[in-house]
Amino acid sequence: MTQSMTITRPDDWHLHLRDGAMLKAVLPETARHFARAIVMPNLIPPVVTGAQAAAYKDRILAALPSGMSFDPLMVLYLTEDTDPQDVAAAHASGLVKAVKLYPAGATTNSASGVKDFNKVRPVLEKMAEIGLTLCVHGEVTDGDIDIFDREAVFIDRVLDPIRQATPELKVVMEHITTKDGVDYAKSGGDNLGATITTHHLIINRNHILAGGIKPHYYCLPVAKRETHRLALRAAATSGDPTYFLGTDSAPHTDENKLQPCGCAGCFTATNTMALLAHVFEEEGALDKLEGFASQNGPAFYGLPVNQDTITLTKSDQATVFPESIQTSDGPVTVFDPGYPVYWNVT
Ligand SMILES: NC(=O)N[C@@H](CC(=O)O)C(=O)O
Ligand SMILES: [Zn+2]
Ligand SMILES: [Zn+2]
């Protein structure tokens, strides 16, 4: 039996496109299904100024294969030296849709991030005034905090104080991985949203560590125990507009993943929509997929929903996804859920 579902074309509210050869290889994987994406600025060097964001946007559009359309929504990387006036100008011109806060050392290419949160107060106040969204990688970096607790501790020690001090600031808790994140996002009112990745709906920490270590399941924030995965699934499929899709598709070459000290990130751009259809069907919530992937994000960012659609089809045969995509820097492994999936974008 074939089952089909047509939904408004989705957007990805948290995506890594990288640069150069990697950008060229991964961009079509996203543009095939998604109309827009919030493009993460953690390049080396990071995308800090409006001028750097404009140049990066040009490189993205130049890498887009002819015949494909895609609208990259640019993000500035917040540093302790970020100039509030530059941020305001980049916002006023329509170029920049968010500013990203990385606690220094929290994740891939976060060395230029924030150590002293007081130093970025003037930028946050300016953003609150002009209605520009702050996207947050929500993990503390103190070495004495257990890696599985870093999100919950960040909410208490960093995020809540920022929000108390600047209640008008719009904040997106990126890639939440805990029930604590789900609950805090829900309690936050219209100014607070949260993205949820595809892979955190599928794997818990056992998938990474039990029965042999699986480097391709290692990402940050690291997947937590099963109760948290279930809380994420309940949130994503609830229809609550607080939660929306940010795949955090984060390509690294296999060479960089398969190291004694391997990179964090799951590459899900290729099969995200098929995997989400599988997950939402399992939860008896296929009717909530369009809200999560195509409506709640634009509503939070104050943007129109897309005009066109995609169709997802379920067939009797398991969908064959590529194991990896090729880049001139080497292969990038596509996230494998570990079970057959019968959905695909057709
Ligand atoms: N999610 C990850 O594991 N990695 C991301 C960085 C990030 O989003 O934290 C990356 O840039 O590789
Ligand atoms: Zn992150
Ligand atoms: Zn990310």
UniProtKB/TrEMBL annotation:
Pfam families: Amidohydro_1
The keyword Zinc belongs to this UniProt entry's keyword annotation: yes
Signal peptide: none
Modified residue annotations for N6-carboxylysine: K100
Record-linked InterPro entries: Amidohydro-rel, DHOdimr, Dihydroorotase_CS, Metal_Hydrolase
Classification via CDD domains: DHOase (cd01294)
E.C. code: 3.5.2.3
Annotated metabolic or biological route of this protein: Pyrimidine metabolism; UMP biosynthesis via de novo pathway; (S)-dihydroorotate from bicarbonate: step 3/3
Gene3D superfamilies: Metal-dependent hydrolases
Function: Catalyzes the reversible cyclization of carbamoyl aspartate to dihydroorotate.
Highest taxon, organism lineage: Bacteria
Entry GO MF terms: dihydroorotase activity; zinc ion binding
One GO cellular component term: cytosol
Gene that this sequence comes from: pyrC_2
HAMAP family the UniProt entry points to: PyrC_classII (MF_00219)
PANTHER family: DIHYDROOROTASE
Family, per entry: Belongs to the metallo-dependent hydrolases superfamily. DHOase family. Class II DHOase subfamily.
Keywords: Hydrolase, Metal-binding, Pyrimidine biosynthesis, Zinc
Keyword Hydrolase: yes
Cofactors named for this entry: Zn(2+)
Binding site for Zn(2+) 2: K100, H137, H175
Catalyzed reactions per annotation: (S)-dihydroorotate + H2O = N-carbamoyl-L-aspartate + H(+)
Assembly: Homodimer.
GO BP: any one term: 'de novo' pyrimidine nucleobase biosynthetic process
Protein name, as recorded: Dihydroorotase
